[in-house]
Amino acid sequence: MLTLLGLLQQRHVWTGPELAARLGVTPRTVRRDVERLRTLGYPVHAGQGVGGGYRLGPGRDLPPLLLDDEEAVVTAVALLAGAGGAAAGATDAALRTLTKLDRVLPARLRHEVRTLSGSVEFFGTARAPVDPDVLLTLAGACRDQVEASFRYRSGDEARERRVEPYRLVASDRRWYLLAHDLDRDGWRSFRLDRMTDVAARTWRFAPRAAPDAAAYVQEGVASRAYPHQARLLVHAPADTVRAQVPASAAVVRPRGEGRCEVLSGAGSLDRVLLHVLLLGHAFEVLDPPELVDRCRVLAEKLLAAAAASAPGQDPSPAPAPAPAPAPDGNVA
After folding, report:
1. Which of 10, 21, 25, 28 is most buried by its number of CB atoms within 10 A?
2. Biased composition, Pro residues: where in the chain (predicted)?
């Protein structure tokens, strides 16, 4: 019956004698097995006359698919490619499907899948390469709710980490794991390309109340990873600003009335100001207070440069007019 189902999935229409010859049985046995498939819920239709025969039609539920070795390898490699470079929303589905396939993939095919996956390249917003075994091990640990362990490189040292894995998150550049760090008793995000010796343990855990995985990782990448963070109110719609700023560089939240809040970080507050100035929109400083002073210093430097560059004008900077007070922060 499984072989019969596989044949019906390979071709649109089969005649009874063709199926009997392929299966090495009588046409009567074919008819009996077709009835069994129908009893199990497979919509096998039969047509009479020229061009008639057995065909597998669409049903209310998706039936299990049977793949031969070549189909299984190609599907797994395509899913790895999808998980590595798919558009937002498709990555998670590709990863879930890949973990299902990896669980039942024969051992003889796994090496071929790993070898072929190393030949897949991306361009544009391609993510940093990740070992497929690392990706699949952590995805399986998230699914099965079992602890995971790995060595994690931070700076020049690598340490053993034990975590309760929660979600895998893909940015436009890298893969991250959101997990509860058991040794530090807190939520952390980890870059997969910094992990080695990744293993799923046997200890199961009860899921904790977790933060939104994508938002937590994005905030960490765009802000918490830097020594200086800033919140700004930009006078432009959130969609407009998101199109100007990579997701890994800032968190953009709608604030209504054509404005949005931008959370970003950098090595210095001046660098944050330069980035938001280049967006070309009016903005207000929400936090930190010292960023207001940096706005004033930067404005004075720019005015001095403009005066010095204009022939026949006094190079000393003119005093800047005091900004009108704003309810949400300081106008810049």
Report:
1. 25
2. 314-326
**Pairing, β 44-46 against β 54-56:** antiparallel
CATH 3.30.70 is held by the domain 226-331: yes
- Cα distance between residue 249 and residue 227, in whole Å: 14
Longest dimension (CA), the chain: 104
Q: Which CATH class is domain 132-215?
A: mainly beta
pLDDT, tens digit, 9 for 90 and up, residues 24-70: 999 999 999 999 988 888 888 888 776 678 988 876 666 667 777 77
Domain ranges of the chain: 2-56, 69-117, 132-215, 226-331
Contact residues for 52 (Cβ-Cβ < 8 A; gap 6+): 13, 15, 46
For residue range 245-284, what is the model confidence (pLDDT) as tens digits? 887 788 888 998 899 999 888 888 888 888 888 888 999 9
- Token pair, residue 171, equals 């940015």
